[in-house]
Design brief:
CATH architecture of the largest domain: Alpha-Beta Barrel
InterPro entries: FPG_cat, FPG_N, H2TH_FPG, Ribosomal_uS13-like_H2TH, Znf_DNA_glyclase/AP_lyase
GO molecular function: class I DNA-(apurinic or apyrimidinic site) endonuclease activity; oxidized purine nucleobase lesion DNA N-glycosylase activity
Radius of gyration: 21 Å
EC number: 3.2.2.23, 4.2.99.18
Number of domains: 2
Strand order of the largest sheet: 1-6-7-5
Shape: elongated
Order of helices and strands: HEEEEEEEEHHHHHHEEHH
Number of helices: 9
CATH topology of the largest domain: N-terminal domain of MutM-like DNA repair proteins
Domain FPG-type: 253-292
Organism: Promicromonospora iranensis
Length: 307
């Protein structure tokens, strides 16, 4: 799933290519992906793209709409969440073949959910692969009309995200710290992959309880959040959309690297290998030496296989 660094890079990528261009048409490929009906997608046609913004893991294409279902000059927002299997595919010359609407499909192959055509023949497709189709597309007058955006927590790279704010979040509820980092209502934009990376950089067990953090540990976690996300944004910046997935994988120190040598939280190999804990629909990776005092965490799935 794209997280804050990749979504920020996608926003920059789309902004550079779409700003000032006029929307020539919007074609719906997956009816299931479209979550709103008023305003209709046709309301975007004829409007000029004025910006591409990010809200947590959501992308927001801002279109200055012409007369029609909204007052003249009032912007519309094409807002979408890529979820686990969604992606943005840009083309300088989109296919002229009309998109055929469907209910979305249930196979693993990529489904074309939405196509946005611009006045110069360029544009982008929103596609989704995998069996669980969760791509969400909205056309709204205000992004906060979408409940999941209205309830987003603090942006972790904003000035508002201070050590004191993090301390308040840690003390609000006694839970595992990885769960807090992934909670979009608390901190916007961090998911499974970067929470693994942050906890490794900060040298914390993913199971460490939030109310057990000392002020010094809170400051260390705050620094790790900023360092990991800033480094990832720098690595993703300027890359075309098609290269972002590979760039994300290449930058990971522990996430997705089960069984490989741990590079060490400070860049000095610790001599251990990356371990994994598996759940029903995801897994997390960590280093016992760097994060859990050398003790492997219980993995119920592996325990069952060894019985």
């Amino acid at each position: 799933m794209p997280e804050l660094p990749e979504v920020a890079a996608l926003a920059d990528f789309l902004r550079t290519r779409t700003s000032g261009r006029t929307v020539a048409g919007v074609e719906v490929g997956s009816i299931a992906a479209l979550k709103t009906f008023d305003p209709p997608t046709d309301a975007l046609t004829g409007g000029a793209v004025t910006d591409v913004a990010r809200h947590g893991k959501w992308l927001d294409v801002v279109v200055s709409a012409p007369a029609g279902p909204v007052p003249d000059g009032a912007p519309l927002h094409l807002v979408f969440h890529l979820s686990r299997g969604g992606w943005v595919r840009w083309s300088d010359a989109l296919s002229t073949t009309p998109v055929r609407p469907s209910l979305g499909g249930s196979g693993r192959g990529a489904v074309l959910a939405l196509r946005v055509r611009l006045d110069d023949g360029s544009g982008f497709d929103l596609t989704e692969a995998g069996t669980r189709k969760r791509l969400a597309v909205h056309v709204v007058r205000d992004p906060t009309e979408i409940g999941m955006i209205a309830s987003l927590g603090v942006e972790p790279l904003s000035p508002e995200f201070t050590t004191d704010v993090l301390a308040d979040l840690l003390s609000a509820k006694n839970q595992q710290v990885k769960g807090l980092l992934r909670d979009q209502h608390a901190i916007a934009g961090i998911g499974n992959a970067y929470s693994d990376e942050i906890l490794h950089a900060g040298r914390f067990s993913p199971y460490k309880l939030t109310r057990s953090f000392t002020p010094k540990e809170t400051a260390r976690l705050h620094a790790a959040i900023g360092d990991v996300l800033t480094e990832a944004i720098t690595a993703a910046s300027g890359k075309p959309a098609k290269e972002l997935k590979d760039a994300k994988r290449a930058g990971m120190r522990v996430h997705g690297r089960t069984g490989l040598p741990c590079p060490g939280w400070d860049g000095t190999p610790c001599g251990d290998v990356v371990h994994e804990v598996s759940f029903a629909d995801r897994s997390m990776q960590y280093c016992p030496t760097c994060q859990t005092g050398g003790k492997p965490l219980a993995d119920r799935r592996m325990s069952k296989l060894l019985r």
